[in-house]
Amino acid sequence: MKQTLLIFFLILFCGRLLAAPGGDFKLVKTSNGINLYERWVMHNGSKVRELKVSFEVTGVGFSDVVTLLKDAGKGGRWNVKSSQYKIAVTRDANVWLNYIRYALPWPMEDQDCSLKFFYTPTGGSGAQTIYFESVQHQVYPRLKNVTRLEGTSGRWVLDPLGGQEARITYQILTNKSASVPRWVSDPIVYDNILNTMYRFKSLLQQH
Question: How far apart are CA 55 and CA 205, in angstroms?
Fold first, then answer.
């Protein structure tokens, strides 16, 4: 159980989008209108999993996505297993810092991550992207008995489809290969990320 939980959190929150190119994404599961894809790529000499989630929304704009990601009060409602979700603003309105802590059952230590989110406004009607990556910052110092998850990176993309429709894509890569059999870890990985995205979508549609 300990290894399984660790694999879940590492897959969701550890990684870089700088891996060698892999094959095409393959659809692995669909739930509540949310599609989950994966592919395996070589990264730092290891074969690792890259995940992608996509879903469609109505009446949602790029600013709505940014607002929800920066909402500390709602962050804990859509992040599965999170016990804390904090936001720190910067001098740049397009850059902010995010802290997430996950409560794990004894005897495991809690885990947390410190992230930097950033984007460049396009000013157009095309797709817009929000990037995130691990960052060390004094506003979110390391805590005793809490394991810091590092190496995180990913992106959120909002792509207008015409009218009031838009597609949101979430993509993340882990730099750690699984240390437990996939038949054990995969159901947990899939169900938790789909549950997280369903919560996010539901809150987003309530804006």
Answer: 12
pTM over 0.85: no
Superfamily of domain 2-205: START domain (3.30.530.20)
Q: What is the three-class DSSP state of 207?
A: coil
Is residue 49 within 8 A of residue 15, CB to CB? The reply is no
CA–CA separation, 24 and 93 (whole Å): 35
**43: region left, alpha or beta (phi > 0 left; psi from -120 to 50 alpha):** beta
CA nearest neighbour of 86 among 147, 151, 137 = 137
* Whole-number Å distance between alpha carbons of 85 and 74: 8
Note the pLDDT tens digit of each residue in 92-134: 999 999 999 988 777 677 888 899 999 998 877 789 999 999 8
